[in-house]
Predict the structure.
Amino acid sequence: MRSAVLLTLGIALACSTSDGRASDTLVFDYTTIVRAGQLLDVESGEVRRNQCVYIFQQLITEVSPCSASEFRTRGKASKHHIDWSAYTVLPGLMDLHTHLADAGQSADLALPLKTSPAATALIGAKNARDTLMAGFTTVRDVGTYRGLTDIALKDAINAGRVPGPRMFVAGGYITKPGGGGELNGVVDNEKLPEDMRYGVTVGPEQAAINAEYFIEEGADFLKLIATGAVLAIGTEPGEPELSIEEMKAVVDTAAKRGVYVTAHAHGAQGIKNAIAAGVRSIEHASLIDDEALKLAKAKGIWLVMDIYNGDYIDDIGTKEGWPEEYLRKNRETTDVQRVGFTKAVKMGVKIAYGTDSGVYPHGANGRQFAYMVRYGMTPMQAIQSATIRAAELLGKEHELGSITTGRFADLVAVKADPLADIAALEAIDHVMKGGEIVR
């Protein structure tokens, strides 16, 4: 039975009389109706057939069964009626480890330095469009060499100046000098431009100052570099970098401002240090051990493990002549990361979808789904990791991540059934963001 949704926070408004009694209610029904042949309910893990999604402005007002005749009849009352009865419809996908506002990975170590902030932002605009067209309507952008360009890109998308996904951004990296968040091996780091070193940190006091700076500039969360990196000269993935005290200073500063912290951490000790400091999520977790897995499980820490791009780095990096140090560290972390991922799935550790896009070309974000299924997830679990679970990590599960009343109308449609062939999500047929068809 259809339930009307009152206009509250943009959907409904209940009007009251002077004595406090509810008066007649102003109801806004829908301006757009979408018919889904098969709809994935990622909250329950169920598949619902022949459903209609009713949308008012940017938000979903109702989801209910409907026949072809009901769709035609009710479609006449809408401005837009979209027939996806031949498609599987699921929530807009979410990638929680992207680098849209960056020059991209190549054999040229100096490329980020050669690319000006303005050029970086323009590259980011193209990357954002490519990502949205691939069905990823929300991303968490986890850092850029050119500090704050991700914030500028987010603002441009929000203002409608460029097309792109909803962005949650870090502003830059909080890293030790010469650490995994620095552009090493090009010039002396002290000679790098200021915008490439906003987050360079020595000691807890400076860590707190840098955290406050990024938040003031518009960061939605903060990114720590807790260990060395695969794609950074002179650092080792297994080696801890920032101290627990430095990371805790960032976490405490962020908490006062209602912001959470994530940590780039490949090595097991660095992961444990970051968890001890109070981070919400761990990026990569390539060398995670059983103790760290148990700790993540016990404390409800999210893992965002980019288990696809190791193959891309080995293949393309070798062909294009990326630094041998990169290729060596990639070989040392790829397979063991996938073993850790499988263990995490079996243990029930929280996992959200993140790919490290920018290492590989933007728009190919969907390639990781097949890897997640290969290494232990069911297709539904993999989809949930990129929808409702990702929204939970962001703290936005009441706004994003599911096709549910009151959520943003972010939808994607595919001809094939991704529960039968998860690779179907590598080629999205239609994309809607906030009630508007973008593909």
In short: The first helix runs from residue 68 to 75.
